[in-house]
Amino acid sequence: MNPISNAQLIKAFTSLGQYLTSDDIKLNALAASAHLHNPWFTQEFVKKALKALGLMLNEQELISWFEKEQIRPSYTSPKSVGLILAGNIPLVGLHDILCVLAVGHKALIKLSSQDAGLTMHIANKLIELEPLLGCRIEIAERLQNYDAVIATGSNNTSRYFEYYFGSVPHIIRKNRNSIAVLTGKETQEELFMLGADIFDYFGLGCRNVSKLYVPENYSFTPFFEGIEKYNKIAEHYKYFNNYEYNKAIYLVNTEEHLDNGFLLVKESSSLSSPLGVLYYQFYNSLETLSGDIKAIKDGIQCVSSHVKLPVATAQVGLGECQTPRLTDYADGLNTIQFLQGL
User: Fold this and answer.
1) Are 308 and 43 in contact (CB under 8 A)?
2) Which residues are within 8 A (CB) of 180 and not within 5 positions of it... i.e. 6 or more apart?
3) pLDDT tens digits for 205-225?
4) Contacts of 123 by beta carbon, 8 Å cutoff, 6+ apart
């Protein structure tokens, strides 16, 4: 494989970022039709994903990323890295692809059946922008001849992945959820921003907030007022069916819950809530809560809050869960370090 310099990679990734935020006819058509292949991929959310990724791939941040991670492409002994991508939200596997290419390896990509052609299109665009990447990107129906694997799936599929890929260096990602910590002092604007953390991509991503931690005697009235503008989510039939199903279960079982017509809010010690449901749990003090969060950090992707907590988990401001940066690695595992260590 011909070598590609960091400068060439940064230029290609920057150009891709500009393309993702452009008004390209083909890209717009793909965003508009994605729901025909995957009903969860609405035009609004596909465009939101494209914009978030496009803003992440800006020249200055890319330069900083390459420098901070001391990325040095390996051309003397490049590896074939199998990537098993998830399909829960649009282009969720793009970061892994970029990491593999950045360190000089080959990306052997197994697409999700739910991908709707998005990743294939972006991969082809990247090759168009930098033809030397053509021999470093391969879409495969079945992974073969790989030196390492990065696989993303559920807790159930992770056992399958461990069985088949346990003999090679690997990263196996399981279910994770994100949480939000409220103090009761949030403004209406902050609560509205929190709504994006909850409802973006219908709550299907690991960076979506599935649970709130609130102080004792917390009033949910301001919270419901803050998220009211997201009520159109109930117009999506698959989301609303899930909401209605869980509502029926709670009513039949006489389980206490709050309901605003498009979101069920229920007290629970569990971390992962069903679709259309948001769990909550009371806390006595932020100090005690920080200890509780540390104890379950392996199940948390990130913490959304306007307060800083002493926890070893990625923290973002309210409304920032779905706008990750290049250094926000899934599960807190540095993908670049893993790949450069092969």
Assistant:
1) no
2) 194, 197, 198, 209, 211, 212, 213, 303, 304, 305, 318
3) 999 999 999 999 999 999 999
4) 97, 109, 137, 139
